[in-house]
Design a protein that fits this description.
Family: Belongs to the universal stress protein A family.
Number of strands: 10
Helix content: 40-55%
InterPro entries: Rossmann-like_a/b/a_fold, Universal_stress_UspA, UspA
Distance between the termini: 25 Å
Order of helices and strands: EHEHEHEHEEHEHEHEHEH
Protein name: Universal stress protein
Oligomer: single chain
Strand content: 15-25%
CATH architecture of the largest domain: 3-Layer(aba) Sandwich
């Protein structure tokens, strides 16, 4: 990993998320891209000028100075760059920097500080996950900064899970965690046991990592069972796949689950976008980097 993007609105939650971004950057010896998105219409503190372009430039320079001062307060050896982007939505501003800077990970808080403008995460996180071509790490304000010793990946028995797991190993590998792949279902046990064996075989053939295992839970309430499983096993990171689904009910169910986890989970949530993973997975197959 070479670049990590950290998006902030300077709220207390964003400050907490920065510690996670910095820890990841130091572990990977990666560069840190510091980003703040501002809306010029909401800015009242900059010198008045009749030239809107000049006013935008003044605002950007001021926010970039704030980003630099914030970063330098931590006295880290990580190389950082600073981008203040004017945009009427946080998501589009972040995506514009992703497109230009090509980071391998985006780190944000789960809540912003303003009720007037669009919050950084909450509804913005869900929009960002759906559109970001790179994984998004959402950090709750009450998450405890520590190394990733136990990581939980929730699987829906799809081949794209394989690509997500390969990327996950690259991401958390330097921490040398135990990775648990979990599938939860209310359907036939025998059928899912067969699929579980299929997934295990795929992982063994394609993912080079010694501390990875699979588990299956049959349950009536997915959200409640997931929270119980997380509590009983003391995981440090939850990983979920934002899926492309055909049926409206299916889509609503998954969205409901992800929303609940984003707002209520007590550990960081790492989200992958199935659409972009599928694209990169096909490219890897063409290049011969994925075993067939």
């Amino acid at each position: 990993m070479k670049k990590i993007l950290f998006a902030t609105d300077f709220s207390s939650n964003a400050n907490k998320a920065f510690s996670f971004a910095l820890n990841m950057a130091e572990k990977h010896k990666a560069d840190l891209i510091m980003v703040h998105v501002f809306n010029l219409k909401a800015v009242w503190t900059y010198p008045y000028t009749g030239d809107p372009i000049e006013m935008k430039a003044q605002a950007a320079k001021s926010w970039e100075r704030s980003l630099k001062e914030f970063f330098e307060h931590y006295d880290s050896k990580v190389k950082a760059s600073y981008f203040a982007v004017e945009n009427h939505t946080v998501v589009q501003g972040i995506l514009s920097v992703i497109e230009k800077q090509k980071p391998q990970l985006v780190v944000t808080g789960t809540r912003g500080k303003s009720t007037v403008k669009e919050l950084l995460l909450g509804s913005t996180t869900k929009a960002l996950v759906k559109k970001s071509p790179v994984p998004v790490l959402a950090v709750p304000n009450y998450a405890e900064l520590k190394d990733y010793d136990k990581v939980l990946y929730t699987s829906d028995f799809r081949e794209v899970d394989l690509k997500a797991l390969q990327d996950l190993v690259d991401l958390v590998g330097p921490f040398e965690p135990e990775i648990k792949v979990l599938h939860m279902s209310t359907d036939n046990e025998f059928e899912h046991l067969e699929k579980l064996e299929w997934l295990k075989e795929l992982i063994n053939d394609n993912v080079t990592y010694p501390a990875i295992s699979c588990d299956l839970i049959l349950c009536d309430d997915t959200f409640t069972s997931l929270n119980r499983y997380m509590s009983e096993n003391d995981f440090d990171l939850l990983v979920m796949l934002e899926k492309e689904r055909g049926g409206i009910v299916d889509k609503m169910f998954h969205q409901s689950l992800v929303n609940k986890m984003e707002f209520r989970t007590w550990i960081p949530l790492l989200s992958y976008n199935e659409h972009y993973l599928s694209q990169t997975g096909r490219e890897d197959v063409k290049k011969g980097s994925v075993k067939q």
